[in-house]
Amino acid sequence: MGASVSPDGPLTEPAVVIAGGGPTGLMLAGELALAGVDAVIVERRVSQEIDGSRAGGLHSRTIEVLDQRGIAERFLSAGQVMQVQGYAYIPLDISDFPTRHNYGLALWQSQFEPILASWVVELDVPILRGREVTGFAQDDGGVEVELSDGPSLRAAYLVGCDGGRSVVRRAAGIDFPGWDPSISFMIAQVEMAEEPEIGVRREGGGIGPVNREQGGGPYGVVLKEQHLDHTSEPTLQDLREALVAAYGTDYGAHSPTWISRFTDATRQAASYRAGRVLVAGDAAHVHSPHGGQGLNTGVQDAMNLGWKLAQVVHGISPDSLLDTYHAERHPVGARVLQNTMAQVALTTPDDRHDALRSTVAELLAMDEPRKRIAAMLSGLDIHYNLGEGHPLLGRRMPDLDLQTVDGPARVFTLLHDARPVLLNLDEPGGFDISPWADRVRLVEARHDGVWELPVLGEVVAPAAVLIRPDGYVAWAGDLAAPELPQALMTWFGAATHSH
Ligand SMILES: Cc1cc2nc3c(=O)[nH]c(=O)nc-3n(C[C@H](O)[C@H](O)[C@H](O)COP(=O)(O)OP(=O)(O)OC[C@H]3O[C@@H](n4cnc5c(N)ncnc54)[C@H](O)[C@@H]3O)c2cc1C
User: Which of 136, 152, 164, 347 measures 20 to 30 Å from 39, CA to CA?
Assistant: First the structure.
């Protein structure tokens, strides 16, 4: 861990403190490092290991954003590419979607995190492990971040990527409105003296061997709980009692590797920003695991925030650019909350909900409904409201094959260094980029072929597109359009004439 800082060692004042080095905090750290911002992660855990099984995979758009940084292959080679999507357990196939990654990736969070962490270490972001953020005080000039152990850290910004029970969110006084849990599940990995009944239960959950090929113990157990109110983590005794309630026996359960619980508590931060403090990932939104969207949404929150925060830290953009983080990502999070609540309702174990679910399954067998819902779950339909204009505006830039003067290139390859790109597909030389050339790269290219977007289908090819570092289109049109300098200024700062 070359980049870890000794807890006692000196640390110069970082521009950004990231509370929490889970999927969201790690992705944000990588984005900030690529943009040349000094950041430090403060992480409670002493290693990247996680207790328990959490996210089971990546959706298409997350694979795409990792591809935009040139690191998708690291994850793809560690997991299994497959059609992972399901809406209320109704499988959805996206193999006909217009993306290079027309699938998901089965990859446990316990495998995902170390791969992402090693990228962050390569980028030299220090990780202060075994330390907690306990609070902060912000003033006009910065944030004083209090740590559990040792002196506080002063930074220009603090980002809470510290999970659903976020200390940062609470200390910032950000409301977390939503819905209390309606269902609670105990989840464990445990040995059993007797052979248990394998399979899914109608009320949800069930028992299965951890190693599906070999069978036998240890077993993964998910059990619906009788009560919703819990003040402490479940114990082996609780697990045994829940097994007896469900199966009439505890199968001699013993030697748990871990025992945990999850619920469908559904809440979202009322604001993703409070001055110099921001929240992202589970710190900003919690919901049921239906559809496997939590980790994916967090990683993409980080991708949205990283380049904006970097520009504000570097003085390229006013701090109002940070308000676009809330404006763009809050609606995405709200949609995830909504679709997970719908899935919880649809999977309620009774005959009437079963009937409703099979009606929905019939609808989802039709092309258009399938595409809509699958594009939502995969994150491919995200549309930031950047106003009227070309259909690409505010949508993900497709990974087109291009011909450039330097030879063939993919759009996503042009984004590897996390810098904005003005891609001109028309006659070269129609625009003087020099007032922005220190920030925005002009690429002259050709693309032979149609432009096809998920759900929308084919769209008219634009003459040029301005692509943000997160891969979303900030502007599309003709290079001579007066809106182009405006868009460059809005997103990437004022023109400079020092060249
Ligand atoms: C059973 C289950 C199944 C799931 N399945 C999926 C799935 O299939 N797909 C999916 O996308 N998501 C899934 N999720 C959700 C996913 O696990 C989370 O959304 C994801 O981990 C969020 O990442 P995060 O970095 O925002 O938060 P976390 O992963 O919670 O990371 C927060 C980090 O902050 C650290 N921390 C906390 N407080 C402090 C502090 N005060 N100071 C310093 N460090 C701190 C923690 O140690 C942790 O490392 C599932 C979750 C559960 C419980």
Answer: 164
Q: How far is CA 33 from CA 68, 124, 297, 447, in A?
A: 15, 8, 21, 31
In tens digits, what is the pLDDT along the chain, a chain of 499 residues?
A: 333 344 444 456 899 999 999 999 999 999 999 999 999 999 999 998 887 778 889 999 999 999 999 999 999 999 999 998 999 999 999 999 999 999 999 999 999 999 999 999 999 999 999 999 999 999 999 999 999 988 999 999 999 999 999 999 999 999 999 999 999 999 999 999 999 999 988 888 899 988 777 889 899 999 999 888 888 889 999 999 999 999 999 999 999 999 999 999 999 999 999 999 999 999 999 999 999 999 999 999 999 999 999 999 999 999 999 999 999 999 999 999 999 999 999 999 999 999 999 999 999 999 999 999 999 999 999 999 999 999 999 999 999 999 999 999 999 999 999 999 999 999 998 899 999 999 999 999 999 999 999 999 999 999 999 999 999 999 999 999 999 999 999 999 999 975 4
Q: b/e string for 160-183 if b means 16 or more Cβ within 10 A?
A: bbbbbebbbbebbebebebeebeb
Distance 22 CA to ligand 1 centre (A): 6
| Residue corresponding to tokens 């464990």 | 188
Run of H or E including 343: helix 323-346
Close Cβ partners of 290 (under 8 Å, ≥ 6 residues apart): 88, 264, 339, 340, 343, 344, 347
Helix/strand/coil for 417:
coil
Q: Which of 421, 415, 436 is nearest to 485 (CA)?
A: 436
- Cα(61) to ligand 1 centroid in Å equals 19
Q: From the CB of residue 235, how many other CB atoms can be counted at a distance below 10 Å? A: 11
Burial level of 95, CB count in 10 A (0-12/13-18/19+)? exposed
The tokens for 359 are 């009606």
Bond before 331 cis per omega within 30 degrees: no
C-alpha torsion sign, points 11, 14, 19, 23: negative
Kindly report the protein residue whose alpha carbon is nearest to atom 15 of ligand 1. 294
Pairwise CA distance, residues 19 & 237, whole Å: 34
**Could you give the CA distance from residue 473 to residue 471 in angstroms, rounded to a whole number?**
7
Which tokens is 417 given? 């260094």
DSSP secondary structure code for residue 162 in this structure: -
